[in-house]
C-alpha cells in the first residue's frame, strides 16, 4: 500500500483525555477516530490488525472443533425475557421498540440467541457435543467508557458457545478452549495471566479471565508469588487466621464506648487489635435489609456477598439504615431488632472467632465476649471478605500481592442456566429429556488490538508483533534521487504490495522516520543514496533497533527470515 493512497493521518499532539499509552498511540497513529463516547471508527491500518487477529482466532477455534456462525445483533425482547435477563440487567442493555411497537434489544452478548438457534436444530444426544463461535458486534451502554478501545460501548467480540450432555464433557471442552486461548494470545504477542473470576451476569459457577498485566488496567488481581495462585480481587480468597482474643469464650459484658463509631476508634479506645472486633455493614436486597458481620480488620466483597445470598444487593445510606431501626455505628448481631425484614449474613472469620467486640445496638455501647453460636447465629455464613495484598495465600501461606490487569478474554461454565430457562433440551439414549449443559467463551477483539499496543510500544510509537502487524514491512525513500525511487518501486513490486507499507510521500526523511516509528511495522527498509553506495538497503527491526545493510538480491530472503524471529 502506497501511503499517498492510504486513508490515515498521524498526530503530533492529542488531548489530555487519553491516559493509557494504547489510547494515546491509537489516536496519534490514526488507527481510530472517536465519534461518540465509547464509539470509534477504525481506519484501514487498524482494520488490517483486526483481520489478522480474527484469522488467528479462527485457526485455533477450528482446531478444537468450532463451527463459525453469525448471530444477529438485534433480538426480540422475548428471548431475553425467557432467560430472565431482560429485567435483571440495568440500562447497559439497550432496549428499544421497532416500528410496530415490538420490544427489542441490542445484544451485549449472545447467550439467548445461540440457545434459541441450537434448540431449534438439536434434540438428540447424538448431535452433541457442539461448539460454535462467531465474530460479531456488541453494544453495551457503558456508564463510563474509557481508555480508547479498552472499554467501548460498541465493540467487536469473538464469542463461542458449547453444548454438552454431561458436566465431564463440558469440563473437557472448557480445558481445550483455555489452551486454545493461550495459543491465540501467545501468537498475538500477549503474555496472559489466567485468573479465577466472577461469572457476573453470565451466570454459572466457574469462570476465568485472561488478563494482560498493565499498570493502567482497571481490574485488581490478587496473585501469589509462591504457588502461582491468581484471581480477580472480586473473588480471590486468602487465609484469615484465627484473629485475636482468649481461646475460652467469656461472658457477655456491655461496656460504655462513647465516640467509637468506627472500627479504628473502637480498637484504640479499648486497646485491642481490630481482629478482635466485629464490624456490621448494611445492604438491601429487594425489600429486605441485609446486615453483614465481618471481622473488623477485613472488608466486605460485594461480589462474594451477592453470590453467597443469590440476590442483587445495594449499599444503603446511614439515614436509610437508621429509618430501618439500625443503630448506626453501634450495630451488632446480638439482640438485633429492625423495622424491616432482615437477613443476617456472617463472614466465616466471625464464625470461627470467640470473644469479639460488637455493637450493643444502643448509642455509645458495645458488647465484649461476643461468640458466634452461643450469642447469635446467621441465616447464611461463608467467605465474603476481600483478599488484599499482604494477606496469606490460602494455598501456601505466602503473602499475596496485587497487580493491575486488562481483561482480554473470559470463559464461563454456564451449566443449565439458559438451557433450562429457554427449554433447550436433548433426548438421551433412553428417550428422557434433559437440559443441555453449556459453556461460554469470549475474546474482546477490539480490546485485544489495544492491549497489544499497551504491551508493545516505546516512547516513539507502536511495536507491532509480526503476526498481527498491519504490514510486515514499512519502506521509505530517504532523498529525492531517481535511483533510490526506482529501486524502492522495484522492491515494492518484488515483496508484494500487500506486504509493504510504502512511504512514497514527498516529505522529508525525518518526518518519514518519525511516522515509521509511530506506526510500528516490524521491519523498516530505507532506500537512499547512502545505502545503495553501501551495497543495498538499510533494514531495521522495530522491536530491537537492530540495523543492517542488505544487498538488493537478498532483501526478500532476509525479510522472510527476519519475520520468523
Summary of the model, kept short:
The chain is of the alpha+beta class and 565 residues long. It has 16 helices and 31 strands.
Secondary-structure-derived class: alpha+beta
The quaternary structure here is: single chain
Determine the CATH superfamily of the largest domain: Bira Bifunctional Protein, Domain 2
Q: Could you tell me the CATH topology label of the largest domain.
A: BirA Bifunctional Protein, domain 2
CATH architecture of the largest domain: 2-Layer Sandwich
Kindly state the number of beta strands.
31
Instruction: Give the fraction of residues assigned to helices.
Output: 25-40%
Whole-number radius of gyration?
29 Å
Descriptive report:
The protein contains 16 helices and 31 strands. The relative contact order is 0.14. It has 3 domains: 46-211 and 405-448, Bira Bifunctional Protein, Domain 2 (BirA Bifunctional Protein, domain 2), CATH 3.30.930; 253-382, YbaK/aminoacyl-tRNA synthetase-associated domain (YbaK protein, Alpha-Beta Complex), CATH 3.90.960.10; 471-564, Rossmann fold (3-Layer(aba) Sandwich), CATH 3.40.50.800. Strand 30 (536-541) and strand 31 form a beta hairpin. It is α+β, with helices and mostly antiparallel strands and 565 residues long.
Amino acid at each position: 500500500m502506497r501511503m499517498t493512497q492510504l486513508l490515515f493521518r498521524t498526530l503530533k499532539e492529542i488531548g489530555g483525555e487519553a491516559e493509557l499509552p494504547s489510547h494515546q498511540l491509537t489516536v496519534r497513529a490514526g488507527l481510530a477516530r472517536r465519534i461518540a463516547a465509547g464509539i470509534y471508527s477504525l481506519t484501514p491500518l487498524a482494520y488490517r490488525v483486526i483481520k489478522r487477529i480474527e484469522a488467528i482466532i479462527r485457526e485455533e477455534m477450528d482446531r478444537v472443533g468450532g463451527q463459525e456462525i453469525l448471530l444477529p445483533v438485534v433480538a426480540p425482547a422475548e428471548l431475553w425475557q425467557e432467560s430472565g435477563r431482560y429485567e435483571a440487567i440495568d440500562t447497559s442493555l439497550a432496549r428499544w421498540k421497532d416500528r410496530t411497537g415490538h420490544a427489542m434489544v441490542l445484544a451485549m452478548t449472545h447467550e439467548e440467541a445461540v440457545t434459541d438457534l441450537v434448540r431449534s436444530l438439536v434434540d438428540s444426544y447424538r448431535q452433541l457435543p457442539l461448539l460454535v463461535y462467531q465474530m460479531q458486534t456488541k453494544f453495551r451502554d457503558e456508564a463510563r467508557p474509557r481508555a480508547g478501545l479498552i472499554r467501548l460501548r460498541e465493540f467487536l467480540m469473538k464469542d463461542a458457545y458449547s453444548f454438552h450432555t454431561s458436566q465431564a464433557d463440558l469440563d473437557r471442552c472448557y480445558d481445550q478452549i483455555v489452551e486454545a486461548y493461550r495459543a491465540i494470545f501467545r501468537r498475538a504477542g500477549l503474555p496472559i495471566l489466567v485468573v479465577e473470576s466472577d461469572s457476573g451476569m453470565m451466570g454459572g459457577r466457574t469462570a476465568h479471565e485472561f488478563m494482560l498485566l498493565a499498570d493502567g488496567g482497571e481490574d485488581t488481581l490478587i496473585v501469589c508469588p509462591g504457588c502461582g495462585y491468581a484471581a480477580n480481587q472480586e473473588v480471590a480468597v486468602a487465609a484469615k487466621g484465627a484473629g485475636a482474643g482468649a481461646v475460652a469464650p467469656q461472658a457477655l459484658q456491655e461496656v460504655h464506648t462513647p465516640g467509637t463509631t468506627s472500627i479504628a476508634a473502637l480498637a484504640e479506645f479499648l486497646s485491642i487489635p481490630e481482629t478482635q472486633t466485629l464490624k456490621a455493614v448494611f445492604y438491601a436486597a429487594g425489600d429486605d435489609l441485609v446486615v453483614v458481620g465481618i471481622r473488623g480488620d477485613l472488608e466486605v466483597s460485594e461480589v462474594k456477598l451477592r453470590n453467597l445470598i443469590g440476590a442483587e444487593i445495594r449499599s444503603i445510606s446511614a439515614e436509610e439504615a437508621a429509618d430501618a431501626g439500625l443503630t448506626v455505628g453501634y450495630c451488632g448481631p446480638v439482640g438485633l431488632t429492625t423495622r424491616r425484614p432482615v437477613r443476617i449474613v456472617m463472614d466465616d472469620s466471625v464464625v470461627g472467632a470467640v470473644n469479639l467486640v460488637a455493637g450493643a445496638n444502643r448509642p455509645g455501647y458495645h458488647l465484649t465476649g461476643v461468640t458466634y453460636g452461643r450469642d447469635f447465629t446467621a441465616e447464611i455464613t461463608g467467605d465474603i471478605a476481600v483478599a488484599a495484598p499482604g494477606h496469606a495465600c490460602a494455598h501456601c501461606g505466602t503473602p499475596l500481592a496485587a497487580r493491575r490487569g486488562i481483561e482480554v478474554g473470559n470463559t464461563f461454565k454456564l451449566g443449565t442456566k439458559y438451557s433450562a430457562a429457554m427449554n433447550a433440551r436433548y433426548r438421551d439414549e433412553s428417550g428422557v429429556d434433559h437440559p443441555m449443559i453449556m459453556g461460554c467463551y469470549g475474546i474482546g477483539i477490539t480490546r485485544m488490538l489495544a492491549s497489544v499496543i499497551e504491551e508493545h510500544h516505546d516512547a516513539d510509537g507502536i511495536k507491532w508483533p509480526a503476526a498481527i502487524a498491519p504490514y510486515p514491512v514499512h519502506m521509505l525513500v530517504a532523498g529525492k534521487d531517481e535511483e533510490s525511487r526506482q529501486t524502492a518501486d522495484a522492491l515494492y513490486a518484488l515483496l508484494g504490495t500487500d506486504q509493504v507499507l510504502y512511504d512514497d510521500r514527498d516529505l522529508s526523511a525525518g518526518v518519514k522516520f518519525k511516522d515509521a516509528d509511530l506506526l510500528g511495522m516490524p521491519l523498516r527498509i530505507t532506500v537512499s543514496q547512502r545505502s545503495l553506495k553501501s551495497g543495498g538497503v538499510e533494514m531495521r527491526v522495530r522491536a530491537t533497533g537492530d540495523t543492517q545493510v542488505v544487498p538488493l538480491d537478498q532483501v526478500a530472503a532476509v525479510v522472510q527470515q527476519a519475520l520468523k524471529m
